[in-house]
Amino acid sequence: MLACLKQDHARVLRLTRQLQTTASRKNLDAIVPKATQQWSHMPSSATISEQEISRLATLPRRPLTLADLVRHGKPPLSDDALLSSANFTLSLLPARLAHRIQRLRNLPFIVVANPHINKIYNNYLHSLSILEPFYQKRISTMEEEEKFTEVMADLVQTHTNTIPTLAQGFLECRKYIDPIQITKFLDQHLRARIGTRLIAEQHLALHMASTPEARQQKPDPYNIGVIDSSIQPARIVRSCEAFVGDICEFKYGVRPKIDINGSVDATFAHVPVHLEYILTELIKNAFRATIESGSESHPIEVTLAAAPDVPMSKLDALKRLAVTDESALDFTKEGLAEYCTSSEGIQGPINSAAPTITIRIRDRGGGIPPDVLPNIWSYSFTTFNADEAGSVNSMNDGLNAITNGGNPSSIAGLGYGLPLGRAYAEYFGGSIAVQSMHGWGTDVYLSLQGIGKVV
């Protein structure tokens, strides 16, 4: 009798364990796909080996500067210059992509298992794997350069929606990871993405401007790939004013005005799309504050100050990019030292003057509340409730929908606009500073570093 009871008890224990294992397996299946449960990191169909990713991730990543982007000269480029551009691109991209893969793997597994973040992870693996056949040896023929350019086009297209996809993923995972950790990761990742995208887009632009068809047309005297060597900030301010004003008039029936003063004819060399994004975000904020405070009768004042004789050399500007362990900039001190000891580039000695443009945007919109001011540079992924987290595109605010990093309404309302704008400004040694007088208005100072004279 006792033996039978022991057998029954053992059978019950086995059944209980099976049920518990099954329940646990079901819970795990609900969190991550079965194919991923045996991996220490997310799997991928990419063919590049783990050893190669680790090797590339340990390589120094030298800073990217505006001077790098114009080093090959004005298009149309000769075949030799185009090959040089392709090989320069290859010298920078693999280590950057591998480093981002490693950083994604450092996130908690349940976060990387999120479908949106996992998509970004696999996009980086895909891009690195299609680059592998090229960086193993130098590109030496135009046929190889043509194939490489097709890969660059694929890379740019693959990473087009990185920002909104990451935003959606972190909204869904915000209970699994500390907000400070998310902010640090996003700051590093989005800044690194700026450089990666610029490197790829610059070669694409130089290639397209150097095709036989392009050679038959009169070249643009100012454009050097993605760089405009003669940007007039006042014109971009007016363009952004018209764009944001149209949205305001449609949404609110009100159109604030902008008065421009100072160095209205100043020009310098920079990336136009970056300046357009930053100014659109800053003007949007000024317009919103003006409308919400009922201060439409007070025009927003934009003052331009050109300082070409500031005792700031390109070397001094580059030193701003030197990093510490706490810095969000995705560069190494070794890379900085390598660049600072390099030879002179197309734009002259590295100790020559680097012009600076400062733009002040002043509004009478009542200022920023003291309790909000400390958080204006944070990625606002924790401010949404569970219903809103299900769909980033559910935000329908007219002003939030206009600065989106390349995809209409894709990060609308997420609070990415201002911190991303600062990332664009700081990437090449610039800055954004905010001074607010609560109850009166706000001054925003945007400083941008140029590259000197391009010959």
Automatic annotation (TrEMBL):
GO terms for biological process: regulation of glucose metabolic process. It holds the Pfam family BCDHK_Adom3. Belongs to the PDK/BCKDK protein kinase family. It is found in: Mitochondrion matrix. GO terms for cellular component: mitochondrial matrix. Residues 272-452 form the Histidine kinase domain. This is Protein-serine/threonine kinase. InterPro entries: AK/P_DHK_N_sf, BCDHK/PDK_N, BCKD/PDK, HATPase_C_sf, HATPase_dom, His_kinase_dom, Sig_transdc_His_kin-like_C. One of its GO terms (molecular function) is ATP binding. Keywords: ATP-binding, Kinase, Mitochondrion, Nucleotide-binding, Phosphoprotein, Transferase, Transit peptide. Its EC number is 2.7.11.-. PANTHER family: [3-METHYL-2-OXOBUTANOATE DEHYDROGENASE [LIPOAMIDE]] KINASE, MITOCHONDRIAL (PTHR11947:SF20), PYRUVATE DEHYDROGENASE KINASE (PTHR11947). The keyword Kinase applies. PROSITE patterns: HIS_KIN.
